[in-house]
Amino acid sequence: MIPRVGKSGSEVPMETQMLLLEVGEESAVLDEDPSADPAAENKFYILLLPVLEGPFRSSLQGTSSNELQFCVESGDPDVQTSQSYAVFVNSGDNPYELMKDSIKILEKHKGTFSHIENKKIPTHLDWFGWCTWDAFYKEVNPAGIKAGLQSFLEGGCSPKFLIIDDGWQDTVNEFQKEGELLIEETQFATRLADIKENSKFKSLESDGSCTNLKELVDTIKQKYGLKYVYMWHALAGYWGGVLPTSETLKKYNPKIVYPVQSPGNLGNIRDIALDSLEKYGVGVIDPQKIYDFYNDLHTYLASCGVDGVKVDVQNLMETLGSGFGGRVSLTKKYDEALDESIEKNFKDDNLICCMSHNSDSIYSSNKSATARASEDFMPNEPTFQTLHVATVAYNSLLLGEILSNHNTAEFHGAARALGGCAVYVSDKPGKHDFNILKKLVLPDGSILRARYAGRPTRDSLFVDPVMDGKSLLKIWNLNKRTGVIGVFNCQGAGSWRLKEAAPNAPNSPTTENTISGHVSPLDVEFLEEIAGQNSSGDCAVYAFNSRSLCKVPNRKRIKVSLGVLKCEIFTFSPIKVLGENIEFAPISLIDMHNSGGAIEDVMYSSNDLPDRSVNVKTRGCGEFGAYSSSKPSSCKVDMKENDFTYNAENGLLVINLEGDCHVRDIKLVY
């Protein structure tokens, strides 16, 4: 799923699953007055969501006549209809509230899925992780896993969360003859032969340890302090499903089925995996037996100390509906069985969904709360870097309501920091950039995760920050006491598929492709909700990369200029007034990308008291920063006197928090 912007019906692509329209009069006010409120343009928004109706799903598509068509399909020739309630339409003046309210209305009306607020969020999201995929691909093995964890340990930044990705399962490629070259594309038709691990994970290691998966998991948890170990598997078992002739899997009644891709799929991006499976088939488990399969697999993994699973290739179901009552019905059966097994075998709904962006999956998601919001991230593909960041931000408009060491690592690290998502890398052992990781991860392995899914600001919603040659991408989020804006120059380093670049757009990333824009406290949605009482109406704004602090009125805009693949993160902290002339706003850990994510609470003394004071609860260690209009008379950390520095020119107060990452009580007295 990728975003697209336009001004006519003909620009709506096939398979559109969400359409947001902006309606309003153009205003010259912003051009004349840089401090003007962007919301003053009196914009209005209309949302169209194609939904599921019984065994049918719908999508939108434009025509050359600028018409908007509804496409309704079942994926099974025997499942037909002459009418359908295909599209949900709603409107409002706040696009983010509109999305949230609409999903909640659909949740209540449909009863087939749940809003994110009604789901249990897996606790692994709050810890730094490592995924083995890009490190080893399918060659993953116990020795490599240990080597990777050891290299993190030696660098002082150990993950607490591990995904053992594709490569651990017992699989068979029926089309690969021993001693012969691999037939191209048959790797996708490889099938699962057993629910237990393959021989790589059963071999006796040189140190005499880890002769099976359980021993490996126990060892790495104990030695490297891992809290969570997840294992990868596909929704159908493996890419090519399960092996029908397998003695251990026959009880699930698998049979070979040949996928059929819809016209919508074929009209967009061809998928090499699906093209291959159309030719070689998929070993599909009987839907009546799919819960038994998941339960057996997950029970075994749980017995090995595994804490959850990453379930991939979920889009395959949309091509297998023929003979099973349609794609929606088949997806629903598989998703319900998966949810039930996850709940039974793992705590906290420990599930990561991948390749699950079709509406069949989105509106069948009752319990799963975590999903990858884009295609695979390919760190070595130079044209993919900016696309990944932009795709995740725009996809999170919808998915956010439902569900490191390379040349652009800093760019992606910044996006992760404010995305409200998991932070994990897929580096090869010894190939880590700890300077970047330590801006994302605290010494105890925890991260400063923002409250919501990071989404584009209002002035980024209807521009193309990848290909129009002039727009920056701005992503907003909230912490408990601060807001955060990430600004990214995504121009000139990639292009959306099936779309031509604007005539003035750069075609390659160079330092000359600098683009300018503005940020403002008004870009942070719902910032007034965390400002509370006694707010001055102004914000302290801390720019991470330039390490600059300034006081900004709510309606003022700050200019920002960035080269391609460059970014800046701004922390916005509402200023509180203590008495007549003391102003204060916490920033928190100024060496971390999402500085304000460390703040747990802030309490201010009553203005009736002679001594004014501020109490800040913050976690982590390093340099704590805050804006203060005057120098405090004293500073205590955990009730002990503590030194601090104060810059009277910009009001930056800095306290060095030494030691571990527990929650500190900072008290400043004026």
Characterize the overall form: globular
Number of helices: 14
Mean pLDDT across every amino acid position:
90
Query: Helix amount, in percent?
Result: 10-25%
Unreliable stretches: 27-32
Cα gyration radius (Å): 26 Å
| Classification by helices and strands | alpha+beta
The fraction of residues in strands falls at 25-35%
Distance between the termini: 53 Å
Number of strands: 33
3D structure, described in words:
By secondary structure, the protein is an alpha+beta fold. Among the domains are: 9-25 and 38-111, no CATH class; 169-206 and 233-371, no CATH class. The protein has 14 helices and 33 strands. Strands 17, 18, 19, 21, 22, 24, 25, 28, 31 and 32 form a ten-stranded antiparallel β-sheet that branches. A six-stranded parallel β-sheet has the order 15-14-11-8-7-16. The radius of gyration is 26 Å and the shape is globular. It starts with 18 loop residues before the first strand and ends with a strand. Mean pLDDT is 90; it is low at 27-32.
